[in-house]
Structures are given as C-alpha cells and as structure tokens.
Recover the amino acids of this structure.
C-alpha cells in the first residue's frame, strides 16, 4: 500500500472493494464468452476449444432473419434519432430565440426517466388504439423515441464544450447562416454526432422489453430470439450469439469513447 | 398568424424531436392513464365504459358471493417490488461508494480507464448480462460446482429463482448508475476539507463519515434514485432469475398485456409504477432546491 501514509484520501479496504467490484462486473461476462467456445454442451466443464456453436448459430435461418431485422431497425432508428437530436441540440445550444429551453430539454430527456416497462405497454396500447401496423416500422418508431436522449446527450455535451468564437468569426467573414452551419459548426460537432449515433445504435440493437411488447409476429429481433431460446433452456448456441452481440457493443462503445477523447 | 409563423420558424429545430416524444411517448402514457379507468375487453383491449375495477383489484377481489373482500396478493407484489428495489439500492450503495471513492483518488489517466470499464457493461445487452447469472447461479452452475468440488456442500444450494437472485441481478445491472453520480460528486471534492479534519485529529473514518459522505450526498441521492426507478419496474431480472414465481410489478404489468389480457389492470399497475417514479423525482427536485445537502455554494 504505497500511498497509505502520504495520500490523505487513502482508506484501507477500499481498493479491495474496487477489485471485487470489477471482478463482479466482468466475471459473468467472461464465463459466457469462455463457454461459448466450449467443445461440449456443458456450461460448467471445459472440454476443449471449439467454434462449432458459432458455426451452428451463423447457419441458423431464424438467427439470420432476427439479425437482419435488428440491423434494419437499429440503422433507421439511429438515423432518425440522431437527426432529431442534432437539430434539437443546435436549437437549444445556439438559437437564442428558442423559448422555454428548460422545458424542451426536459422533454428530450423524458424517455430516460420513464421505466421501460411503462414505455413498452404504453407504446403497445397506443399503436393498438390508432391501429398502426407497419411491421418493423412500429418498432423503428418506438426505438427512435428512446434513442433520442442517448444521441442527444453526447451531441449537447460536445456543443457546450465548443468555442463559439469560430462560428462568430465565420459570420464576421460574411458566411451565411447555413454556410456557417455546414462548414464550421457541423464539422466541429461531428465527434459528438458520431458518438451519439453509435450509442443510439447499440441501445436500439440491445433493446429487449419495448421490442418484446411492440413487435408483431414476424418482426423478431435478435434479443427477442435469444430470450425465446433462454426460456426453453440453456444452450451453447445462446452463448455464441450473445458473445457476438456483446463483442459488437463493446467495440462500438470503445470506439465512441476514443472518438470523444481524441478531440 | 404571424406570431405562430415566427414561433414555428424559431423553433423549427426543437419541435420535430419534441413532437416525436410528445406523440409517441406522452400521448401513449395518457392513453394508458385513460385505459386504467375502463373495463377490460374480452380478448385484450378495453370496453368503452368507465370503471374503477382495475384499481380496486389492487386491493380487493370478488368472492363467491360477488362481495368485495380484501386480497393482499397484489399488495404483496407491490411491497416485494419496493423491498427488492430497496435491497438493490442498498447493495449498490455499499459496494458503489467505496469504488467511486477509490477511483476519484486515482491519477487522471487511470480514472478514465476505470470509468470506461464501468460504462462498458451498461452498454451491453441487459438480457445477456442477466442470462450470464443463470450460468453462475443454477444448480449445476459455477458457484455450486465450485463449492461441491471443494467439499463445502454435498447437494447444490438453491441460488437461482430466489428473491436474492433477483436482487443480485438488479445490483449487477444498475450499479454503474450508483458509482457514476457518486464519483462525479467526489471528483469535485475539496481535499483541503479532509486535510483540515485530519489536522483537527479526526480519524480517517471520521473524516469520511463527517466530511466526505455529507458532501457527496447529492451524488448518493441521485445514484439511489437512478437505481431505484429501473429496479422497481424491472422485468428481465424477475423473469429470468426469479423464474416467474417471485413476481415484481414490472413482470406483473407485462403479464397483464400478454397472457392475462387485462389491459386496464395492466395500465393501473403501470400508473402505480409511474406514481412511485414521480414521487422519487419530486423528492430529488426538492433535494436539489434545498442546495443538495450543502454541496452547492
């Protein structure tokens, strides 16, 4: 304990709690990943390395269909949510004529405050009440709504940290409003937009409960398919698909973090 | 007319997002509020007649003679939800505070790595993370296999499908929500205050309890609310780790909209969850207005 005497903040045991915490956080995930490569069906006894469960998972038609649905939904929800969030962030951060900014920013964050199960049944009820039945379209609408705050927060943070004098300089040099936006503000804002889009994408890709309630027959997404498998029983195939989905999320978050850090 | 046009022009950036959230989130919640006062339809949905049956069902049942009798079944589920959510908050706090404190004391480079490591699981699939715990907790799972191999126990312990398993799953899921706000409060902590306490012969633990904890109270409260709200409405953890027999409010709501087909009752339950959430948020707002435990200068 090298700083125990010098560091005023040092408290004995807190380092061990932190170590325990990270083990607690990652051990279950590591077990999942390790046993997805297991040669036998066992999820507790190691029988050698094998990729057979991945091969089986990738060859499964249902999984391919579910993956396709998940990707279509995530792409459209991301584009919608990021566009709306960027416009909202610019309006709240740069447009002095917008009134009731507090109310609007509260509204944008609202989807984060409402428990998912409530959002899920409310959306289901709403679609049923107005008779909207667009297949994947229904899910895309539902995802767009709860992805907005996830896209908005990084964009807003980036905008707040940006030097406004560059935009002022552009306008002093007779750049029009739109030219300034296109040539100065948006390029500067891009790291925030990319990072917001990535977060929206994985939030959509991973969503389970809202999709479960809103999805109609034939609109199965990957998490819903995994859930149906888990309900039947534990199979190594579940471990394999889950590991793939886990890998995608981790890569996207890390990249998004690095983009945010570099600039 | 010009006023409206000017308003629309000025608010062209914010209105689309506001409209999408208004139409597809606020209107739906208002609709289930209305549905909770209607009678259930025969095959799901509702009949357009006013009824408070859905709320009555929270406390009463019709007996054989069609008399209303007190039935604590749903009250029990409500209290179980509150109880498990409280256990989850407490668990997150006990582990989360020391972690946030430890991380706040690290050099900046390492702090950022720690923070990234805390956020990564949050961005991974909730279903999968909960599923991992089935692998760990079930009878042939990691804990039981290890304990039996070591000879500590002869027969597997029942770990899965218990309230404890649900609480564990919730702690696992939501602990980043506890660590991050506490960390944010501790990061801005003025170290001279601890120095002053130590100079005045306070012990390390005394300084922690009387200086650090009160100053990080806004973070602790924010974290507790951020864990409590989703834990209360949780669906996946009670479903997968509770095995459906230890129902919580979230799973009960889901049940009413799927197998049970009682939309008004499901809506009423959703309103109960919303009421609890609103209460939490109001307490939080009051806490902020009061100056957040002396944190804001």
């Amino acid at each position: 304990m090298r700083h125990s005497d010098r560091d005023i903040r040092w408290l004995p045991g807190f380092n061990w709690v932190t170590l325990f915490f990270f083990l607690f956080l990652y051990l279950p995930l590591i077990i999942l990943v390790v046993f997805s490569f297991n040669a036998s069906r066992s999820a507790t006894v190691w029988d050698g390395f094998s990729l057979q469960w991945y091969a089986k998972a990738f060859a499964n038609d249902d999984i391919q269909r579910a993956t396709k649905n998940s990707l279509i939904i995530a792409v459209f929800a991301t584009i919608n949510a990021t566009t709306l969030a960027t416009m909202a962030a610019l309006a709240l951060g740069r447009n002095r004529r917008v009134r009731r900014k507090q109310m609007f920013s509260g509204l944008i964050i609202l989807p984060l405050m409402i428990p998912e199960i409530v959002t899920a049944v409310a959306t289901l009820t709403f679609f049923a009440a107005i008779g909207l039945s667009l297949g994947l379209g229904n899910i895309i609408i539902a995802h767009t709504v709860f992805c907005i705050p996830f896209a908005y927060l990084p964009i807003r943070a980036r905008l707040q940290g940006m030097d406004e004098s560059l935009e002022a300089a552009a306008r002093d040099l007779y750049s029009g409003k739109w030219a300034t936006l296109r040539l100065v503000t948006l390029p500067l804002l891009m790291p925030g937009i990319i990072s917001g889009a990535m977060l929206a994408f994985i939030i959509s890709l991973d969503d389970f409960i809202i999709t479960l309630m809103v999805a109609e027959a034939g609109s199965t997404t990957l998490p819903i398919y995994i859930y149906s498998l888990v309900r039947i029983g534990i199979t190594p195939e579940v471990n394999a698909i889950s590991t793939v989905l886990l890998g995608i999320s981790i890569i996207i978050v890390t990249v998004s973090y690095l983009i945010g850090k570099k600039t | 007319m010009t006023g409206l046009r000017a308003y629309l022009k000025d608010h062209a950036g914010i209105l689309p997002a506001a409209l999408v959230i208004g139409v597809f989130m606020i209107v739906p919640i208002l609709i289930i509020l209305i549905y909770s006062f209607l009678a259930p339809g025969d095959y799901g949905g509702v009949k357009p007649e006013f009824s408070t049956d859905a709320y009555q069902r929270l406390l009463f049942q019709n007996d054989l003679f069609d008399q209303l009798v007190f039935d604590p079944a749903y009250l029990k589920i409500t209290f179980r939800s509150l109880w498990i959510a409280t256990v989850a908050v407490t668990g997150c706090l006990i582990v989360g505070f020391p972690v946030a404190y430890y991380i706040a004391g690290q050099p900046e480079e390492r702090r950022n790595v720690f923070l990234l490591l805390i956020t990564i699981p949050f961005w991974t699939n909730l279903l999968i993370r909960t599923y991992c715990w089935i692998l760990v907790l079930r009878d042939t799972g990691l804990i039981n296999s290890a304990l039996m191999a070591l000879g500590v126990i002869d027969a597997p312990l029942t770990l899965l499908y218990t309230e404890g398993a649900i609480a564990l799953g919730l702690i696992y899921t939501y602990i980043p929500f506890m660590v991050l706000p506490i960390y944010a409060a501790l990061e801005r902590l003025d170290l001279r205050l601890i120095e002053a306490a130590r100079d005045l012969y306070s012990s390390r633990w005394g300084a922690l309890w009387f200086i650090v904890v009160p100053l990080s109270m806004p973070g602790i409260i924010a974290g507790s609310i951020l864990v409590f709200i989703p834990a209360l409405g949780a669906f996946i953890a009670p479903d997968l780790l509770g095995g459906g027999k230890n129902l919580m409010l979230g799973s009960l709501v889901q049940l009413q909209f799927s197998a049970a087909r009682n939309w008004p009752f499901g809506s009423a339950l959703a309103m109960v969850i919303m009421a609890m959430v609103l209460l939490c948020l109001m307490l939080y707002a009051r806490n902020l207005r009061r100056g957040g435990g002396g944190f804001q200068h």
Remarks:
- Chain B touches chain A through 86 residues (CB under 8 Å).
